[in-house]
Amino acid sequence: MTSQIMHLASNMMELIEERPYSCTECLKIFKQKSDLMIHMRAHTGEKPYQCPECIKYFSQKGNLVKHLKCHSLEKPYHCPDCLKGFKENHELLVHMRIHTGERPYQCSECLKAFKRNSDLAVHMRVHTGEKPYKCSECLKSFKHKSYLVIHMRVHSGEKPHQCSVCLKNFSQKSSLVLHMKVHSGDKPFHCKECIKKFKRKSELEKHTRVHTGEKPYQCSECLKNFTQKSSVNLHMRLHSRNKQYHCLECLKIFKKKTKLLIHMRVHNGEKCISTL
User: Fold this and answer.
1) Which of 37, 40, 60 is nearest to 48 (CA)?
2) Weakly modelled stretches of the chain, pLDDT under 70
3) Which CATH architecture does the domain made up of 189-243 adopt?
4) Residue ranges of the domains in the chain?
5) Which of 12, 72, 75, 218 suits a disulfide with 85, CB 3.0-4.6 Å?
């Protein structure tokens, strides 16, 4: 009996030596740590491999490769690096530049290089000043179609990006990202002079003027300088209160330019619609 126990113990030791990695959940043992890591996904539910076509997730890469055959009929050309599928071979070749870093299309003006010829064509508008995308509401023009789409939200009032915490909506994703710092308390921008922290880079730039003494905003009336644009706007109201507009015909004085323009219709023979 003792010899049988010793023999069984010896076999167990050999098995442990052959398969030293044990699952803490079900006690299953594995030869390699990588095999144990894959097995653990059965307990954790982790699925790190995502299908680039339908966004389905898989626990093992082999299962993802099998699944991709479902898409192979419609997209037979697959990237060997990320397994993304394409309908045409030339689409795959263009995509591969993401992995290789190849940029064959170069700007003749500034020598900046691009992966696609279409990207170069868009970039050239920086040098030519071309703005082919025009707003139908205010006729403002843009270099990129995406800029026009964002701009149109000014007129439509559309705010498609919503904060998951307070449900506030924003017209631009970048505005939402900045807003989220209000909830997270994140202040990544540090002042080198006084170590004060800020949520936005623009806030840090305003603050540093306290230390540098820079006043980039100037009053067009008296040439006084200010650190902030809002300060110069407030200051300009002082001039607007004292400003007077004189009629060159009868020397009548008006506080607002619009009132003077309406009054001038009397001298020009136009019918005065509004009373002063």
Assistant:
1) 60
2) 1-20, 71-73, 240-243, 270-276
3) 2-Layer Sandwich (3.30)
4) 2-34, 49-87, 189-243, 244-276
5) 75
Question: Could you tell me the pTM of the whole model?
Answer: 0.38
Q: Which residue has the tokens 């307990």?
A: 43
Task: Name the percent of the chain lying above pLDDT 70.
Answer: 88
CA 190 from centroid of its chain's CA atoms:
22
Do domains 49-87 and 189-243 share one topology? The answer is yes
CATH superfamily of 49-87: Classic Zinc Finger (3.30.160.60)
Judging by beta carbons within 10 Å of its beta carbon (0-12, 13-18, 19+), is residue 104 exposed, middle or buried? exposed
Phi, psi (degrees; rounded to nearest 5) at 126:
-65, -40
Cα(70)–Cα(85) distance, integer angstroms: 11
- Residue-wise pLDDT tens digits, 75-107: 788 888 888 888 888 889 989 998 999 999 999
In degrees, rounded to 5, the angle at the alpha carbon of residue 82 between the alpha carbons of residues 80 and 87 is 75
Amino acid making up residue 25 = E
CA distance 222 to 240: 12
